[in-house]
TrEMBL record:
Keywords: DNA-binding, Transcription, Transcription regulation. The keyword Zinc does not apply. Belongs to the LysR transcriptional regulatory family. PROSITE patterns: HTH_LYSR. InterPro entries: LysR_HTH_N, LysR_subst-bd, WH-like_DNA-bd_sf, WH_DNA-bd_sf. Residues 1-60 form the HTH lysR-type domain. It comes from the Bacteria. It comes from Lentzea rhizosphaerae. It holds the Pfam family LysR_substrate. SUPFAM superfamilies: Periplasmic binding protein-like II (SSF53850), Winged helix' DNA-binding domain (SSF46785). This is LysR family transcriptional regulator.
């Protein structure tokens, strides 16, 4: 059998997003058209690739087996086209999630560099983006680079682009809801709940390291399902606070408030990473846009691995 690369691209994009609506938006097609392409591919393979319900989209075992080969096939097809055209212009960047700080940096870059051809993917964590960086499916990715194993870090070039302040997310009925900030030393008296079951590994590790460093009693139980789900849970639990990135984009009708942490301010280090020796020709302009106005803020706390890595 011969694979239809349009169907393969539809499958890979849907697998990256695990959401057919967002995948359709990325491909500039209707959700119905995307579903048809995936359905035709499933028919060709005689295998179901996704389990879909009104609540979530998940890869089947067949889909998980097929995904790395599909990514490689797309990379080979794109490389063949690039060889004919002489160069590949589009720079493909993985941002983890559309509501987190890296997506804000991308939006800023596209406003500053109006003619920059950029394509965004969301693989939900730097470790998940590494195969795409190796294969050429992605040119760069955002993440907490010093959370990687040394052998993985050795493959990558990277540059720090943002230190994002950590903040509390609380119900509008929480005692701290009206406060602009709270001192870090006072956090031991605040009941904290931060579900990390299934969360992005580098974020979960950061929260655990932060709690250990400041001797905080944090309840890490429960699944990390989505930002909307977390906001709903916090809005319904005014007795606890959770920890989030301070630049996280809340839902427009949020029933929660953000309270910043000070003295010192804990920060999450976002770096842009790319394979050593394979820097996209447009990446330098993109890095300049990402880091425009970036300064190292005073009085910050970094996890030990990040502090050592960034000072090396």
């Amino acid at each position: 059998m011969e694979l239809d690369m349009g169907q393969v691209r539809a499958f890979v994009t849907a697998a990256e997003e695990l959401h057919f609506g967002r995948a359709a938006e990325r491909l500039h097609v209707s959700q119905q058209a995307l579903s048809k392409r995936v359905g035709k591919l499933e028919d060709s393979l005689s295998a179901r690739l996704f389990d879909r319900s009104t609540q979530k989209v998940e890869l089947t075992q067949a889909g998980e087996r097929f995904l790395p080969f599909a990514i490689d096939a797309l990379a080979a097809a794109d490389a063949a086209v690039a060889a004919i055209k002489g160069t590949r212009q589009t720079v493909r960047v993985d941002v983890l999630d559309e509501r987190l700080a890296p997506m804000q940096l991308v939006r800023h870059a596209t406003r500053r560099l109006e003619d920059l051809p950029i394509e965004v993917s969301m693989r939900h964590g730097l470790p998940n983006a590494l195969p795409a960086l190796r294969s050429g499916e992605a040119d760069a990715a955002f993440g907490r680079v010093h959370s990687l194993a040394p052998r993985e870090l050795a493959e990558l070039a990277h540059r720090l682009v943002l230190l994002e302040p950590l903040a509390l997310l609380v119900s509008r009925d929480h005692p701290l809801a009206a406060a602009d900030s709270v001192g870090l030393a006072s956090l031991r008296d605040v009941p904290l709940w931060a579900p990390i079951g299934g969360a992005v590994a580098e974020w979960a590790a950061y929260l655990e390291q932060f709690a250990d460093a400041w001797d905080l009693n944090v309840d890490f139980s429960g699944p990390s399902l989505s930002l909307d789900h977390l906001v709903d849970d916090i809005a319904a639990r005014p007795e606890v606070a959770t920890l989030v990135g301070g630049r996280m984009q809340l839902p427009p009708t949020s029933r929660a408030a953000v309270v910043y942490l000070t003295g010192p301010t804990p920060v999450y280090p976002w770096s842009l990473v790319w394979p050593k020796g394979k820097q996209h020709p447009l990446l330098e302009a993109l890095l300049d846009a990402f880091t425009e106005g970036f300064t190292w803020p005073p009085d910050v706390w970094l996890a030990e691995a990040d502090r050592i890595g960034l000072s090396a």
